[in-house]
Design brief:
It contains twelve helices and no strands. It is mainly α. It has two domains: 149 residues, no CATH class; 55 residues, no CATH class. The radius of gyration is 34 Å and the shape is flat. It starts with a helix and ends with a helix.
């Protein structure tokens, strides 16, 4: 190395430049696929997470409640004028009987709405109301229907009967269906929680290992019959069959325990009846 080159090195304070070796290399197709697979596995793990499923079911429940409540409220509002006309019985407008006739429909409707609101809360936790609750609901719906269509029946107007029958019947059907829909939504969230808890989403590497050993290590999901068989084995003649007892011996969910208890009690009653015969 001559003096000029040595001076250049000393002035720069670093060795001569070498060809770049750290240039960014674009990822290969396999690397891109691996990254996409990892992102898909993470997304799937969150989509099947019990809390995410419960949140989605809750959103659907809110939409169903709003639509049903809107339809029920509009239907009851439609019947108010007909019920007032039935209760006023031709009284002069703005007279005391005419004014008090407006109180009849809200009286019945408020009781019906109170019952439906209570069933909205009980259905969320799959607690079924008693017989009197259903009787009160049917009584209010039947009273609304009769008062709404009586004038049309008395006048012999078939079109009037059809017109004034549709809103009360829609309210009646919605009042019956909304409770079952809420119950099924809760059951859907419970089943989804059980499935997600029984089968946690694996990572990409765990999934590849699981696919290689699926035939040897895969475990069948526990079905309703499996829970029922466990409860049937644990039952003794002095055992009181209840949802709490079924959950204790099988480890099933609260929503499933009621169905298991009813099924087991039905089997026991049938076997005892055949034994007595």
């Amino acid at each position: 190395m001559n003096q000029h080159e040595m001076g250049g090195v000393a002035a720069a304070g670093r060795p001569p430049a070498t060809p770049a070796t750290d240039a960014r290399v674009p990822p290969t197709r396999a690397q891109r696929l691996a990254r996409e697979a990892a992102e898909a596995a993470e997304l799937r793990s969150w989509q099947t997470h019990p809390d995410v499923i419960a949140l989605r079911v809750e959103r659907v429940r809110v939409q169903v409640d709003r639509l049903c409540w809107t339809g029920i409220t509009l239907g009851l509002a439609f019947t108010m004028a007909n019920v007032q006309h039935f209760a006023a019985a031709g009284s002069p407008v703005w007279s005391l009987p005419w004014l008090t006739a407006w109180l009849l429909d809200p009286t019945v409707s408020l009781v019906l709405l109170a019952i439906l609101r209570a069933e909205q809360v009980t259905a969320r936790y799959q607690v079924h109301a008693g017989r009197w609750v259903r009787c009160a609901k049917w009584l209010t719906l039947a009273a609304t229907y009769v008062m709404n269509t009586w004038s049309s029946y008395a006048a012999g107007s078939l079109s009037g009967v059809v017109l004034h029958s549709v809103p009360p019947l829609v309210v009646f059907a919605a009042a019956e269906a909304i409770t079952e829909v809420r119950d099924k939504l809760t059951e859907a969230a419970t089943v989804a929680f059980m499935n997600a808890a029984a089968r946690p989403a694996p990572s990409v590497h765990e999934a590849s290992k699981a696919r290689r050993s699926t035939s040897r290590t895969r475990k069948r999901r526990k079905l309703f019959g499996d829970y029922l068989a466990e409860a049937r084995t644990a039952w003794t003649p002095d055992t009181v069959i209840s949802p709490a007892w079924v959950r204790q011996v099988t480890g099933c969910s609260r929503g499933l325990s009621s169905r298991l208890a009813a099924a087991l009690a039905s089997e026991v009653d049938r076997e005892h009846g055949e034994g007595e015969n």
